[in-house]
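Input record (one chain):
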Amino acid sequence: MAKQKFYVVWDGHEPGVYTSWSEAKLQIDGYPQAKYKSFSSKTEAEKAYRGSYWAYVGKDTKNVKKSLPELEKAGVRLDSLAVDAACSGNPGDMEYRGVHTKTGQEIFRVGPLPDGTNNIGEFLALVHGLAWLKQQNSPNIPIYSDSRNAQIWVKAKKCRTKLAQTSRNAEIFQLIERAEKWLASNKITNPILKWETDAWGEIPADFGRK
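The corresponding structure, as predicted from the sequence alone:
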């Protein structure tokens, strides 16, 4: 039997602590920039709800993440961009974001968008990150992704999803088309690096809902 999770909604239709994902999802669906996260115990969730979302976002509450000095010692380049995606279902509501690896500052965030997949989100996050770095005139800043699929797709300059396009996910496919066009017309100079989750903990851009 799966262990029960508790869901904190800091910013949604009705903020609070919820005992099921279906209840929590009602509070964030259609709410711009909703802020929420799952926890493994009610006590932990209630404590988090009384605190700040930013103190918990991207942090794995079950596993201790390596400190910045430990990451740097392990070879992680802290002056970098980290990207990740999340999807509630397959397909389901998909979103992605990019953060500064050292500070955790959120640089960009897109979604949730309906009827997407995590692989698509990882691909779009990586391309969005590369485009953002180019706009910032930062051709040598590394970008981290924990998705091998996304890195392979970016190298191929093609989103190789098997997801069918529908009226509900039309916006996602528009983003895919734009990303593929960007890849076709831009040379990638930023190092694309694999985030080693098993060794370093969750990537800083992780949504922390596992």
